Amino acid sequence: MPQGHRSIWHVARAAIGLLLGLSSIGCRPSADKSPSTPSTGSPPPLVALVMKSLANEFFAGMADGARAHHDASAGRYELLINGMKNETDVEEQVGLVEQMVARKAAAIVIAPADSQAMVPVLARAVAAGVLVVNIDNRLDPGTLREAGITIPFVGPDNRAGARAAGAAVAARLSRGSEVAIIEGIVTADNARQRGLGLEDAAREAGLVVVARQSGQWEMEKANGIAAALLTAHPALAAILCANDSMALGAIAAIEAANRRGVLVSGFDAIPAVRPFLDDGRLVATVDQHGDRLAVEGIETALSILAGAAPPEDRTTPVDLVTAPATAPRP
């Protein structure tokens, strides 16, 4: 086994074990249909939650929140949960949307893998009479206009959240310190917004961004990028990551290179990063409350299906989570 892989396993074995365990859920398009209370009238509407990879703890938590809401909803709707094998497989998500249209879903609540490439299939869904609500990653407004459709968005201010995480790292650095950014999939709006937020924080603190590369939201890819950055930039003081999976990969690279003084930030506040916050190896992450985000999207869909006017785009909360004051510095 290559040294880099051994390092990832050694440093983040608990996180990887959990992620690998969850990835089996998304090895094929998964459908989790929960039973609902029978109705004497018309059947309850079928709401499909279409996410990215269920191997990512963030989306697993989103699915859990949706299930809990459905279980407490006394037969208001049927729920169908779908996830992809990995977050870069846009064609798989396109196929999931097509399946949900074929299943006669009344509404699709979607966290799109790509902000532009998912618009055509969603336009076809709208044309087929399916209500679509966009959560988590905003669909591209220009592409929606070109398609002639309007889809309400319910989700966080990713730029503000990432700026807060970057500022938490910057507060521990001196002006002129070198930092690098590992961002998500560049065709995703949330990746772009988080990258901009991290750049905002660096610029405002007078830090020097020496590199910005895409880790495609993945731990191992980010690990390889971080390892190369540590070699290329001996004075690198921090690696700012656009999600927690990539932050775990960066921490593993830092451990392998014996560069424990390099600071790291993430985004999503997944359970796997808690030990790294507690011991100071992760300075900050951002909780965008994925479980509540799914519920907000479902409630928006149910409201529209019941006759309410589609709402204006709505921003949901993000909260900075930092290492405790008692945590040792890396």
Mean pLDDT: 89
State the major sheet: 7 strands, mixed
Tell me the structural class.
alpha/beta
β-strand amount? 15-25%
Q: Give the beta-strand count.
A: 13
The tally of helices reads 11
Q: What is the second-level CATH architecture of the largest domain?
A: 3-Layer(aba) Sandwich
Report, as a whole number of angstroms, the end-to-end distance.
27 Å
Task: Return the string of H and E elements.
Answer: HEEHEHEHEHEHEHEHEHEHEHEE
Low-pLDDT runs of 5+ residues are 1-40
CATH H-level homologous superfamily name of the largest domain: Response regulator
Spatial sequence of strands, sheet with the most strands:
1-3-2-4-5-6-12
